[in-house]
Amino acid sequence: MIQFIRVAADHADFRELIKLLDKDLWSRYPDTQQFFDEHNQVKLDANAVVAYLNDVPVGCGCYREAGDEHTIEIKRMFVKEEARGRGIAQRIVKELELWASEEGKRDALLETGTGQPEAISLYKKLGYVQVANYGPYVGSEESVCMGKKLS
């Protein structure tokens, strides 16, 4: 059984999963991940979702306000390798979008990388389109920034 739980950004399972995400990112971007690490820090005001498969934490994501009061940035998306292919990442994104919409947010942004084609494909499937690199990602050739209007 798969469950999706909304949690605070200091939740222990969320923190453990983002440690695994960081390890994955370092393996994909060994020469540049140090730059991105400073932008991947999750503040305690972020809203997070943890996915559980048979009561074991297997995936996560979060969002924070970005730029203005109506825009969020989705961050720290990750699903353990053994749990991939079950639609968990898609459901995490949808839960984050729903939560943000409930809070009156209208737009979502995110950044992923050229070394994560599976993430780019997922976001396109969910209606995200590539936008100009924003904020700290301006000028980064490895960054792929995407956005979507929330319903």
TrEMBL record:
Source domain of life: Bacteria
Domain called N-acetyltransferase: residue spans: 3-151
Matches recorded under Pfam families: Acetyltransf_1
Keywords assigned: Acyltransferase, Transferase
InterPro entries tied to this protein: Acyl_CoA_acyltransferase (IPR016181), Bact_Acetyltransf (IPR050832), GNAT_dom (IPR000182)
Protein name per UniProt: N-acetyltransferase
